[in-house]
Structures are given as structure tokens and as C-alpha cells.
Amino acid sequence: MSLTQFAVPTAIAVPGMTVRELFTECVKADVAGLPFRAANGKFVGKASIRHVLREVCISQAVIDHARLLGDSIEALRFPQIREQWLLDLIIDDYILSDAATITPASPLTKALAIMESHDTSYLFVIDAKQKYHGTLSIVSLARRMLDRNP
Amino acid sequence: MPVGPHGDIVSMWIATAILIGAYAMIFSERLHRTYAALAGAVAMVGIGGWLGFYSQEEALTSIDANTIVLLMGMMLLVALLRATGLFEYLAIRLAKASGGRPIRLMIYMGVAISLLSMILDNVTTVIIFAPLTILVTRLLKLNPAPFLIAQAMLSNIGGAATLVGDPPNIMIGSAASIDFVTFLINMAPLVVAPWLVTLLLLLVFYRKDLQPTSSETALIDLDENKAIREPAQVRRMLLVMGLVVILFFVHHRLGFYPSFVSLIGLALALILVRPHADQLVGEVDWSILLFFASLFVIVGGVEATGLLDVIGSSVAAAARDPNKLLLTALALMWIAAILSALIDNIPFTVTMIPIITALSAEGIDVHPLWWALAIGVALGGNGTHIGATANIVVIAQAERSGVPNARITPLQWLRTGLPVMFSGLVVASLAFALLY
User: Which of B89, B94, B138 to mutate to test the interface with A (most CBs of A within 10 A)?
Assistant: First the structure.
């Protein structure tokens, strides 16, 4: 059984793409990130909504002490961060090189193992010829199972 | 020229060349300092054994086990204490006690971090306090940079007060068999004056940043109670640390090495807290311990050639005269400070220890030299951004804070660090001259 049938087709992130375009594509396909293809045609990482927000909106000190935070912490918002400004950013500076990928012929168990080892809930199905077949997410997997077993 | 116990002048030159080569590699930072030191140690033992001036047995005995075990024991105790969340609790309580007033906040945090640094590793203390300081200052709409700089500088000085507060002190205390109380009694006056001057200068330099903002009354909405994961573990660790501190004060009366005291505390803590063994062992900075052990082996090789005795004898003539001893001590303090501001203070300390020990063998009271060395390396650490590990920690934290004006540049550090260092040296020298 090819993993392609579980994967959700999505757009590919490329250099020069804006955060707005990334978010739009992710929302459209209901995925948390897109594979990033460099100018040389090779997939070199991923553009993730979570990573962009983490890098731009919160500092490590806030993350480290999340459990201590109350609700009156408006001052922890970065003053320079505005939603419009954020959406206009170019994604190139926010690419994660650690993208989980798998080939279409791989078994589902391997896909789950790779997701766990990368601490992620999605991975990209890419074949040996660097052809992208879609994103396999834990949600798409569950949806597929439910569809097959109504 | 006299020859060494195992070697001759050629051996001295060769051992010195190995030491200089290893130190050059360490200071150039082209290679990780631990790798460079280990390579130097292996070269010293290999060549020393081949030429007959340094045996493997001598190399092993040159490693000061008391220093290494004490450092390891305290690292593990700090890791256990840190896991309780007590430091975070303390930092938030202090921030709230300051009422959001910037000057009070700097003083409260500075006092707390200095006191903690007297018993615990100051780098760990800064690592814990710095992110919370960033959070608190951002909630108060203040620039975190002055607070971070103050914490690093005050903890560097605070750590100098005790036998266990700073690695150079541990080495000095161990090599000279100085007990905790003697160390504290002699170092406290030398530490208090520079500490106060440093705080005063920081308050003056950063007076604009320490102006209360309109949001001074802003809520520091951090829940300190959520910092404590298991109150029972806090009580157990406080019991252990209390016992360790008491034992440090009486270790010489009981005939305990400081390292043994740390092991007593550690053993008790492990039984009471029962942490995950593998995770806890991972908390030890093995790289630092290997670095220190390698330095001991390198300097042990030079010592084995008799070169350090020769240097000691040369200095002894001057140091015998009480007036010249004072000058020698002050010169040592200033040289130690200036070198510590520029390069890693540990290699310098490890090299100076056998030289001062050699002076002691000449019948000279070298205690003032130990204090001069200890205060010198501590004050020097404040001079530049690379002078102490705590400085590097707060700079990294400021960088990661995401606050544009919080970034601490090397030049910015120098503008504060150099006046602080030299003022500290001046008052420490005055206190030293009065006392010795």
C-alpha cells in the first residue's frame, strides 16, 4: 500500500514566499507546514506555521517559563510585532532544516516511527527523484482510517 | 641553573613548550578548550615519559581529586536543587518584593544571586535567574540588559568569597589546604568592598534604564507557586543543602575534605530525592572536569621538571621582605585580573598554584598571595564579555530575549566592565593593604 493514498496534496514552499502565502496554503490544505524546495530544486527543509510564530512572536525565556505565566502578560508581546508585518515577512529566514520525509513505498509503521523520532505530527512523502507526493499527517491518517471503516 | 628532580634544562624547555602550545590552542579557541587541554596532557605524559621527567603515575597523582570531586558533587547537588524549582520561586518572590521598582529589583536580585553564588556555582545561578529576569523586566517594560549585566558581575564577585564559590577558589583551597572558614574570613573583606563599588557603579551607569516606567505598577503576573513542582522535594533538598553548608563550616574540625562534604550531601540527597540516575549524571559538566584534569596533568609535567620550583625560588627573594610581599601580592592580583579579563582564568590559576606552593616551601607566608590570586581572577572576570562564563550566559540570554535594545555588545560590556573591574581592583587593593 503506497503512502501516497494517505498523503494530502499541498503546495511547496519556495524561496521568496511570504508568511501570508505559507499560512494560506497551510490553511487550505489543513496542514501545519510545507516542504521547502531550494532554488537548486532540492527539498532542504520545511516551512512551519509553528516555527514561524515561535521565532517571531515569543522568546525562549517565555517558553521556558510557560507554566509560571499568568493571564496579564500583555507586556510580553513584542511591540514591533504586528500581524500585518508578520504576514509580509519572507519565509526564507524561518526554514527548519529538520524536515521529516519518507518515500511513497515505505510502510506506515516506518512513517509513524519517523514522525515520533522527529517529534512531529506530519511528514512529507518525497520519492527518490525528488518528486513531492503530499503531506502525511497524523490527522490525515486517522481520517483515512475512519473513511475506510465507517 | 638547578635541574629538576627528573629532568634537566632540556626537559624544562620541552615541558614549557608543551604547556605554551596547549595554552595557545586553548586561548585561540580554534579547538574546544577541553580537546586542546587533553591533547596537551597526552603530549606531556607521552614526551615526559619518553624523556624520563614525567611518569604516568606522577601524571595521575597530579590531578587534584579533591577539586574534581568537589566540583562534580556540587554540580549534582545544584542539578537536584534546580529541579525543585526553588530558584525560580525565589526569583519571582524577589521581583514581587521589589514592587516593580527598578533600583530595588536590581539590588534584590544582585544580593540574592551573590549569596547563592557563594555556595553554588555562579554560572548555574545566572542560568536560572537570567531568563526570569528577562521575563520580569519585560513585564515591567524595562530594558533587561542592565539587570543581566549586574547579575553576572555581582555573582562573579560573590563567588570569590568562599572556598566553593568559584572553581579557582576550589583549586586554591585544595592545593593550599585552606579550610572554608579561613577562606571566608580572609576573602569576605576583600569581596564586600568591590561588590559595593560594583553595585554603585552599575546604578550610576544605568540610571536612565533604572527610571521607573509608567508601568511601574504593572503586575508581575508570574505564579511562583507553580515553580515548585514537589514541595516535599524542596524541603528535602533544603535539608541537604543546610547540612552541606554546616559541614563546610566545620569540615576542617572533622577532618573532612570539602569534596567529601559534597559527597555526604549528594549521598543523602540521592537517598531522599531518588532522581533518575541517568538524567542526573547527564547534568554534570564532564567537559569542564576533563578540562581541569588535563590542565592539572600539563602543569604537573612542568612541575616535575623542577621549573616551577626555580621560578618560586626566584620570586622568594623578593617575597621574603614583608613590604615586597605586599607589592608581590598586589602585582599578582592585578596581573591575575587583567589576564582573567582577556583569557580563561583557570589555566592561569592552575599554573600559579604550584609557583605559590613553591614559595611556601621556601618558608614564606603565602596566604596573602592566595587571597590576591583569588580576588584578582574574580574581579578580572568582570572586565570583558569573555572574562567569565556567567558573562557569556547573560549575553546569550539577552540576545535570545527578542528585545532589540537588550542586546549586549562586547563594546557595551567593556564600557561598564573596565571601570567596574579597575574600581574593584583599587578598593580591593586598599582593603588588602590595610589587612596585610
Answer: B138
